[in-house]
Sequence to fold (221 residues):
Amino acid sequence: MRISELADTAGVPVATIKFYLREKLLPPGRLTSRTSAVYDEGHVDRVRLIRALTDAGGLNIAAVRRIVDALDSPHQEQIDMLGIAQRTLAGETAEDAETAAVDEDAARFAPGKISPRVRSLAERRGWTVLERSDPLMARLEQAWAACDQARVPTGDDHIDAYAEAMSLVAGADIAHMPRSTAEAMRMVVVGTVMSRGLLDVLRMIEQRESAIAHAKGRGAE
Fold:
């Protein structure tokens, strides 16, 4: 298909396609002349992935480039892809990623790098904490502090219950992760972003059901 057809199929302006090509987010098409190229369904999928990352995911071009570069790397293991996706979603820069590139088998808890309560939770849960830089633990502390400011209950029992529930969600994610590297990255990144709303609604439904059950229990007393 020509670039105009690619734009129509992917639902974006031609100018956007040209921008993705200039930024090397989208691989070039197959040249048919000095000034013309043709594109295929792989280009359509890539454009849609980029749009999902920038629109729904809120990622900037630098973050998207890291992800598509990983997609185009031939020998990435799934665990490496997961790390790249999560660090990108957590807002880590490329420089941070280089600093955090440590062997997880050698990872240790780093005093002073994370707050005592996050370190305590990580120890209780048996989580791996990256020694030099762990953006997920930093994000956890930020979110926890925001709950404190809003006076949302965040005692150990409450946080442990949340973590246990997320363990089930994460287990379901990993169990259904495709073997294809490209599809695995798509699931981790796009799935993580797009499923947030789904998880929010499921939580509200379960809250309602728990409240109804609690009310019935009190009425029976």
Q: What stands out?
A: DSSP finds ten helices and two strands in the chain. Strands lie at 30-31, 37-38. The CA atoms of residues 20 and 183 lie 20 Å apart. Residues 181-219 form the longest helix (39 residues).
